[in-house]
């Protein structure tokens, strides 16, 4: 394992001890965990901001409805559908 990762002994020592390897591994894991937590918090914050922006944008848009002309094609189709479904 030591050769695979290329761990060198400390200056003044001849061999790499298991405690030294695990100390390095522990430090790496802690750094990775803190970076992971920080990144996940940033992503969740960005997601919440994006959801709020979408809500604001959709709230700002107002849908206008127009009255349908009495003899328009749409009105005649609706009347025909209503008479067919009531039969």
TrEMBL record:
Source organism, top-level taxon: Eukaryota
GO cellular component: actin filament
Signal sequence, renumbered to the chain: none
GO molecular function: microtubule binding
InterPro entries tied to this protein: FH2_Formin_sf (IPR042201), Formin_Cappuccino_subfam (IPR001265)
Statement: the UniProt record of this protein carries the keyword Acetylation: no
Keywords: Coiled coil
Record bears the keyword Disulfide bond: no
Coiled-coil stretches: 33-83
GO BP, one annotated term: actin nucleation
Protein name: Si:ch1073-209e23.1
Species annotation: Oryzias melastigma
